[in-house]
Design a protein that fits this description.
two-stranded antiparallel ribbon, alpha+beta, binds magnesium ion
Length: 207
């Protein structure tokens, strides 16, 4: 059971199993099948990096998927994001808003099946995403990146198939405007303006 104000650490492993990413999130509400969390702008996060420090996406697919990845610590820039983290699952759902609060849509990030520790889930980004517009129409995103990762052996064909199955399972909930993760009530939720960005725990990569 998570309580409002708890720090939930969402961590990402690279394609060789090394820990390369972390997001300290403030728990908003333990909402049953999902824990609703807030990633405030300015929060200190850890992201994967190429050996020269660039973001993996800026390198070649070989550099991204076949080579070793390091880390880079940086502040989360842009607007804050409401993240819905399933208690059991292989995805997270990110709700994007304009600075004035206008809801822009849901981003379903497909991930390896979550392995929970007392701090939160550990997973690996499986590249494939689904963008769901406010009118609940949806589209695939970055399927080509996933194909490239499979071609280079970073992601297995079974993991790719699992990502598509997970997406299709999650999208079933679109039919019900009260059902998580696409429940209407979270699209209008706004954080307490007094909340300050979280710092990344020094032991973010400890077991
Ligand atoms: Mg993704």
């Amino acid at each position: 059971m998570w309580s409002p104000g708890d720090l939930l650490l969402l961590r990402y492993r690279g394609y060789r199993g090394e820990l390369v990413g972390a997001r300290p999130l403030r728990v908003v509400e333990d909402a049953g099948p999902y824990v609703a969390c807030w990633l405030a702008a300015g929060t200190e996060i850890m992201d994967p990096a190429l050996p020269d420090g660039r973001a993996p996406r800026l390198g070649t697919v070989d550099e991204w998927f076949a080579g070793p990845l390091g880390t880079r610590r940086r502040p989360w820039t842009g607007v804050g994001i409401l993240k819905l983290v399933p208690r059991q699952g292989a995805h997270t759902v990110w709700l994007f808003h304009e600075a004035d609060g206008t809801f822009l849509g849901w981003y379903v990030n497909l991930e390896a099946p979550h392995r929970w520790t007392a701090r939160g889930p550990d997973t690996t980004d499986l590249l494939l995403d689904v963008w769901v517009a406010p009118d609940r129409t949806w589209s695939w995103k970055d399927a080509g990146e996933l194909d490239a990762a499979v071609a280079l052996g970073a992601v297995s064909e079974a993991e790719r198939d699992g990502a598509y199955r997970e997406a299709e399972r999650v999208l079933v909930a679109l039919a019900d405007p009260a059902a998580l993760p696409f429940a209407d009530r979270w699209t209008t939720w706004r954080p307490d303006p007094a909340w300050t960005p979280l710092a990344l725990p020094e032991d973010w990569d400890a077991a």
